[in-house]
Each structure stands twice: as C-alpha cells, then as structure tokens.
Design a protein that fits this description.
Strand content of chain A: over 45%
Largest sheet of chain B: 7 strands, mixed
Distance between the termini of chain A: 41 Å
Helix content of chain B: under 10%
Number of helices of chain A: 0
Largest sheet of chain A: 6 strands, mixed
Order of helices and strands of chain B: EEEEEEEEEEE
Shape of chain B: globular
Distance between the termini of chain B: 37 Å
Order of helices and strands of chain A: EEEEEEEEEEE
Helix content of chain A: under 10%
Structural class of chain A: mainly beta
Oligomer: heterodimer
Number of helices of chain B: 0
Structural class of chain B: mainly beta
Largest interface: A-B, 22 and 23 residues
Radius of gyration of chain A: 13 Å
Radius of gyration of chain B: 13 Å
Chain lengths: ~110, ~120
C-alpha cells in the first residue's frame, strides 16, 4: 500500500520568501507522486507530477519538486512566494490501481 | 487540457431526500472515475472507484446502498446520495482518468457542496 505524510499542517511565509512544503512517501513499488493545490471551495489543480523520469520536476506557477528515493521524499518548493500562493496543498501518491492516497494537506499563508 | 465538470456546484436538500451529482469529462474518455469526500479543513477521502460499464468499487466503510454510483458512459458518472442526513453534508469531488493511455494522472472536477438540512 502507498501513503504520504505531509510534515507541517500550516506554513506561513513572507511575500518573496522561499516556500518549502514537505512530503514523504511510503510505497512498495516505484511511486507516482503528485502535488495539488486547492483554493477555497474549489477542486484540485495539478501543480506537478513525478512519473519516474527526471528527479527534479518543474510545475506551474513557479513550483518545483525533487524526488529523492534515498530519503523517500518529494518536497515542493517555490523560490519567491506570491500572495496568490495562499491555498491548501496536497501531496499524493498513486498505486498500480490508479488510486490516489492524499496527505493531510498543508495550508500556506503569505504575509505581505 | 483535460476538463472535468460537476453539476450542481451547490445543493441544499432536506433530510430524507436523495440528491444526484453528475461528473462529466468534457474532452476525453474517462474509463475510470473516482469519487472523493472532503470535510472542512481535511484531506480528500476516496469513496469509490467507478469503471465504465461495471459496478463501482467502494472503499472500506463507505455504504454502497447510501452512495449509489453509476458510470453509464465514458464521459459521465453520477453519485446519488440516498436518504440524505445532515451528517452527509460535505464537499464531494470527482476525478477522472483518461483511458487512452497509461497515465496515472487524475483530472479533478470543481466539487459539489452538499448541505442537508
């Protein structure tokens, strides 16, 4: 079975500062990993995905994530936070049955 | 890009009535659709997986007689909450997988806010 753990339920950053959201996974097979963003009362939008190609994955809105097998991690970063980055972020892992297991989520607030 | 729609976006119903939520893939054929439930300030919980033309597979603890799922075509899946009660109030989100390839990506709908009074 696959699972992900998001470290930190809430992250607060200043506008222009680095955003770092942590995600560790557990998987018995090579994982497919995803980061999604959710704005209030909306569905999920895919930020980026890892599918066993390049370990450094670039996504939308300036986000990127690095897959580190040795650390079983897939942390999400953005060099410079913008006010529009305030949202809920979910890390997810897919199993061979295509089902997604989500982390508990991390709320990002951006201070002006 | 792949687009998934849900209808309605919000619904209020009285306790004891049934509510149907539609999930449509607009520009691709979805061989598999997933239904999630999300409580406030919580993560998404997978309720069931539906494959076109076959019975849905429910996750442990989800009442299949209460949450009826139908996936009658490659672009439409419906979730019917039967005999709804206030505890069924939640945000329901569907997703769809493009069956034309081997991608593990799911495309999510905008969600339906159900309030049972």
């Amino acid at each position: 079975a696959q699972s992900v753990t998001q470290l930190g339920s809430h992250v607060s950053v200043s506008e222009g500062a680095l955003v770092l959201l942590r995600c560790n996974y557990s998987s018995s097979v090579p994982p497919y990993l995803f980061w999604y963003v959710q704005y209030p009362n909306q569905g999920l939008q895919l930020l980026l995905k890892y599918t066993s190609a390049a370990t450094l994955v670039k996504g939308i809105n300036g986000f990127e994530a690095e897959f580190k097998k040795s650390e079983t991690s897939f942390h999400l970063t953005k060099p410079s936070a913008h006010m529009s980055d305030a949202a809920e972020y979910f890390c997810a892992v897919s199993g061979s049955d295509y089902k997604l297991s989500f982390g508990a989520g991390t709320t990002v607030t951006v201070r002006a | 890009g792949a687009v998934v729609s849900q209808h309605p976006s919000r619904v209020i119903c009285k306790s004891g009535t049934s509510v149907k939520i539609e999930c449509r893939s607009l520009d691709f054929q979805a061989t598999t659709m997933f239904w999630y439930r999300q409580f406030p300030k919580q993560s998404l919980m997978l309720m069931a997986t539906s494959n076109e033309g076959s019975k849905a597979t429910y996750e442990q603890g989800v009442e299949k007689d209460k949450f009826l799922i139908n996936h009658a075509s490659l672009t439409l899946s419906t979730l019917t909450v039967t005999s709804a009660h206030p505890e069924d109030s939640s945000f329901y989100i569907c997703s769809a997988r493009d069956g034309s390839g081997s991608s593990y990506e799911q495309y999510f709908g905008p969600g339906t806010r159900l309030t049972v009074t």
